[in-house]
C-alpha cells in the first residue's frame, strides 16, 4: 500500500512539473455566447454557416452582426526560469569515480565459478587432542 501511494504521488508530481513547464495555447470561437469551434493546435474556425434555427428572430444576435461573434485565445506560457544545476568535475573526483567504479565491477566477476581455494588440501594430522590434554571443555 505504501509503495502504491508513493508511486501515485511521484507520478502526480512528475505530471504537475511537466504541465507547469510546458507552453500551450488554445482558441475558442463563440457566436451568440455559444461555443461554435474549439481548437488546441491552431486558430478556431469562424462560423460561416447560418444559424440552425433562423426562424427565431427575437434574438439580439445574428450572423449578420459582426460584433456578435468573438474568438478567444487562451495561452499558458511555461516557466523558463527553472534553476539549472551545474555538474563540474575536477580531476580528483574523476580519479575517485574511476577507481570506485572499476573496484565494484571487478568485485563481482567470476562469482559464477564458485572457486574453493582449499578443497585439494588435506587437514593436518592430530597427534594429541589438545582440549583433553589441557582439560578445556565447552559447557
Task: Report on this structure.
A hairpin with a 2-residue loop joins strand 1 (24-31) and strand 2. The model is unreliable at 50-58 (pLDDT under 50). By secondary structure, the protein is of the alpha+beta class. Helices cover 29% and strands 16% of the residues. It has 3 helices and 3 strands, in the order αβββαα. The chain has helices at residues 2-21, 91-107, 130-133, and strands spanning 24-31, 34-39, 69-76. InterPro entries: DUF8199, HYC_CC_PP. Keywords: Signal. Residues 1-25 form the signal peptide.
Summarize the structure.
With about 140 residues, the chain is of the alpha+beta class.
Mean residue pLDDT:
79
Q: What is the distance, rounded to the nearest whole angstrom, between the alpha carbons of the first and last residues? A: 49 Å
Strand content: 15-25%
- Total helical segments: 3
Described by strand count, sense and barrel closure, the largest sheet is: 3 strands, antiparallel
Tell me the structural class.
Answer: alpha+beta
Summarize the SSE layout with pairings.
Layout: H1 2-21, E1 24-31, E2 34-39, E3 69-76, H2 91-107, H3 130-133
Antiparallel strand pairs: 1-2, 1-3
Pfam family, one: DUF8199
Keywords: Signal
Signal peptide: 1-25
Amino acid at each position: 500500500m505504501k509503495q502504491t501511494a508513493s508511486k501515485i504521488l511521484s507520478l502526480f508530481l512528475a505530471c504537475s512539473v511537466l504541465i507547469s513547464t510546458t507552453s500551450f495555447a488554445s482558441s475558442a470561437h463563440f457566436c451568440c455566447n455559444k461555443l461554435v469551434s474549439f481548437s488546441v493546435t491552431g486558430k478556431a474556425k469562424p462560423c460561416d454557416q447560418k444559424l440552425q434555427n433562423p426562424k427565431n428572430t427575437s434574438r439580439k444576435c445574428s450572423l449578420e452582426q459582426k460584433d456578435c461573434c468573438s474568438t478567444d485565445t487562451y495561452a499558458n506560457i511555461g516557466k523558463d526560469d527553472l534553476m539549472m544545476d551545474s555538474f563540474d568535475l575536477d580531476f580528483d573526483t574523476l580519479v575517485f569515480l574511476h577507481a570506485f567504479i572499476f573496484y565494484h565491477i571487478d568485485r563481482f566477476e567470476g562469482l559464477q565459478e564458485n572457486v574453493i581455494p582449499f578443497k585439494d588440501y588435506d587437514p593436518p594430522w592430530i597427534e594429541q587432542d589438545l582440549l583433553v590434554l589441557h582439560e578445556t571443555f565447552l559447557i
